[in-house]
Amino acid sequence: MRQHFPREPKPGYVTPWDDTPEWERQAAGSVYAQVRQFVEVSGGHAARLSREQTSRFVATCWTAQMYRHFENPKSGYVADWPDLPKWQQETDADIFEAIERG
Questions:
Q1: Residues annotated as region Disordered (predicted)?
Q2: What distance in Å separates the CA atoms of residue 63 and residue 59, rounded to the nearest whole number?
Q3: Which helix (H) or strand (E) holds 54?
Q4: In this structure, is residue 3 part of a structural domain?
Q5: Which residues 6+ apart lie within 8 Å of 9 measured at CB?
Q6: For an engineered disulfide with 55, which of 22, 79, 93, 95 has Cβ 3.0 to 4.6 Å away?
Q7: Quick one: which of 54, 50, 49, 48 has its CA closest to 81?
């Protein structure tokens, strides 16, 4: 995240795991599980996806979690992939790649 964010990130963006709110840890765990399962069912072919495709997948999984945890999430929390800032798109692709590497 720090690699792509254009300035010093807000403290909430880089909170240590133990200090992260429970809902956010649950959401992150769900996204992790979805990406792991996606990689597994692809039979090893997820590596052929583009960075944009992997980023979109993570963003979509995260959006579903925002709707799960919030009745009326902020619009920025559920923005469609093209509307996300470039740093967020790149971070989401990095997340997919990190999970894929295991």
A1: 1-20
A2: 6
A3: helix 51-69
A4: no
A5: 1, 2
A6: 93
A7: 54
Confidence of residue 35 (pLDDT cuts 50, 70, 90): very high
Q: How many domains does the chain have?
A: 1
Residue 61 maps to a domain: yes
Residue 33's nearest CA partner among 94, 99, 88, 101 is 99
- Half-sphere exposure for 29 (CA within 13 Å, toward CB): 8
- The whole domain housing 79 covers 21-101
Model pLDDT for residues 46-88, shown as the tens digit of each residue:
999 999 999 999 999 999 999 999 999 999 899 999 999 999 9
